[in-house]
Amino acid sequence: MDASRLAAFFTTLLVLSACAHAEPHVAAAPRAEQAPAVPAPFTLFELAPGTYVLHEAEPWATNVLLVEMPDDSLVLVNAPATEASTRVLLGYLEARFGQRRLTVINSHHHIDSVGGNALLLERGAEVIASAQTAALIASDTPADIVHIVRDQLVPPQFEPDFEQTRLAQPSRTFEAAAGLTLRFGAEEVRIFHPGAAHSIDNVVVFFPSRALLFGGCMVRSGDSLGPADGADYAQWPSAIARLQSLQPALVVPGHGARFDAQQLDGTLALLRAAR
Fold it and tell me: CA-to-CA distance for 233 and 231, rounded, in angstroms?
């Protein structure tokens, strides 16, 4: 075999060998559909699959817990403080999840937990609160909202949103002392009153299978216990101790962008310092 034919022979062997060891062709994976952008004024925190916090930085750094349940329904813990923010939230939920059954739980009677009730009810949501919370909502008037806004030093640009927010009763109530257990498919959600703390009617919402606790405003994420009006400093520590006994891995406060269980220890430290 002459030199040129020998070279061609070895070249063919090299090509065949490369083809034999080449990686098989793999089709590109389809791109996941992007979730719609979270609209202002909210920031979305994903704590775990199907578990989110919609955080509204101004005026009070408030949190709404959003949980996608195994029966495809959605649970919200707390309504936004105003109807304006609630309208934005509902638009986002529809854009991301489509039409879903919506259950809303009010953690207490303050505006930062119940402000969106009227609009949520109009959109077909079930709104749940304790009978004590319902009675306290009924005792409030539009003038009380104006008083709250001014007392809490809400920036002027937010005042119209609060003044245009209607107060509305929940569509379902339960006795706080008995608590309430809800079931969504195979998942259980427990609502109970651990004792007076930030307010006399504050309840918490526990998702045992997720080790997830919505502690609301009785759990403090910063260095302040918040407004003293209506707070029960004597019972607050024992209420926090009851929450600690649940051994949650994730804790959502009513305000602030912290979601670790160490907030419970921090709240107790603030209460000790306030004595």
Answer: 6
User: Is residue 15 in some structural domain?
Assistant: no
Q: How many separate domains does the chain show?
A: 1
- Please indicate, yes or no, if residue 69 is contained in any of the structural domains: yes
Burial class (CB in 10 A: 0-12, 13-18, 19+), 26: exposed
What's the rounded Cα separation, in Å, for the pair 39 and 61?
Answer: 16
Tell me the residue length of the chain: 275
| Within-domain flag for 266 | yes
Rg (CA), the chain: 26
* Domain annotation covers residue 2: no
| Residue 23 pLDDT greater than 70, yes or no | no
In this structure, the strands spanning 187-192 and 204-207 are antiparallel
**273 pLDDT higher than 50:** yes
Position 5 scores a pLDDT of: 46
pLDDT tens-place string over residues 39-64? 999 999 999 999 999 999 999 899 99
Domain extent, residue 172, equals 36-274
The CATH number covering residue 192 comes to 3.60.15.10
Render pLDDT for 183-223 as a digit per residue (tens, 0 to 9).
999 999 999 999 999 999 999 999 999 999 999 999 999 99
Amino acid, res. 136: L
Buried b (16+ CB within 10 A) or exposed e, 68-89: bbeeebbbbbbbbbbbbbbebb
State the burial class of residue 101 (Cβ atoms within 10 Å of its Cβ: 0-12, 13-18, 19+).
middle
Q: Are strands 102-105 and 74-77 parallel, antiparallel or unpaired?
A: parallel
